[in-house]
Amino acid sequence: MRKTLCLVLVFVAASTAAFALTNPATDPSSSSSASSSSGAVGNPASAKPPVAAPTNDATPAPLSRLGLSAGIGAGGINLQAATNLNKYMNLRGVGNVFNYTVSNVNTNGMTLNGKLNLASAGVSVDLYPFPYHGLRFSPGVLFYNQNSANATVTVSGGTSFKLDGVEYYSSSAAPVQGSGTLGLNKQNPAFTMTAGWGNLISRRGGHFSIPFEIGAAFVGTPNLNLALTSGQVCSNPQGTANCQDVATDQAVQSSLQTQIAKYQNDLNPLKVYPIFSIGIGYNFKIR
To answer: Hey, what domains does the chain have and what are their CATH numbers?
Structure first.
């Protein structure tokens, strides 16, 4: 009986050992991890979405950069300064200056020696509908405008000149002299409107730019003045007979006013001053 019981115990132990060798124990943590991984694969909603890489937005903070440019334009030497207000807007100041002298310009027998003086300054708001491109629209104000021309008028002695189609003769002894002015600033300050390409303060992070601008300043009708103030007019081509003071001769002064009215009528449609400029600019951080 004892021998039979021992044989049974040996058989059970051997069977248990064989089962353990063919089926190793599973670690609970491994099982949990595997289940978790299996669940993540099987259920996409439980998986965490990938984190997007941050974008490199080069738009500067408001009032943090200053742009300066120099160029040429219809107003002469063109200088500009701008700062950024936000992603779509800049505030820009503009100044122009130029002087030009002309000599011996002859019209209707009168010789003009003149000087063109251009000096203006304004401010505008630059609107960029597409901030990463250069197109802009810029309403503004021309608050300083000294654009004008002035000239001296002379008529050589013994020569003729015409006013309103009437011929007069300048005295040989006292030639006719006078002066004229042309004002291009009747409306001061004046509204301006321009369009252009190029941003002095790039939204892409660059420093250099080539700003271009075209538009108009609504300065009003040019104002013309012409006066004959000294010398004499005579009745003969040699300028020697029946000479009268040009400043007090009623016929000459009447013809002069009629001639000025004709010139002014020709100028009346010119109520805008052209704006055109191109230059090179550079911007830098100020805060």
So the answer is: 65-285 (2.40.160.170)
DSSP string, 48-117: PPPPPPPP---PPPTT-EEEEEEEEETTEEEEEEEEEEETTEEEEEEEEEEEEEEEEEEETTEEEEEEEE
135 Cβ partners below 8 Å, 6+ apart? 128, 129, 195, 196, 197
CA-closest candidate to residue 228, choices 263, 258, 259, 253? 253
Tens of pLDDT, residues 96-126: 999 999 999 999 999 999 999 999 999 999 9
Q: pLDDT tens-digit profile of 62-85? A: 999 999 999 999 999 999 999 999
| Residue 46 DSSP class | G
Taking only the tens place, the pLDDT of each residue in 40-49 is: 334 444 455 5
Residue 135 confidence (pLDDT): 97
Q: What's the pLDDT at 49?
A: 53
273: alpha, beta or left? (left if phi > 0; alpha if psi -120 to 50): beta
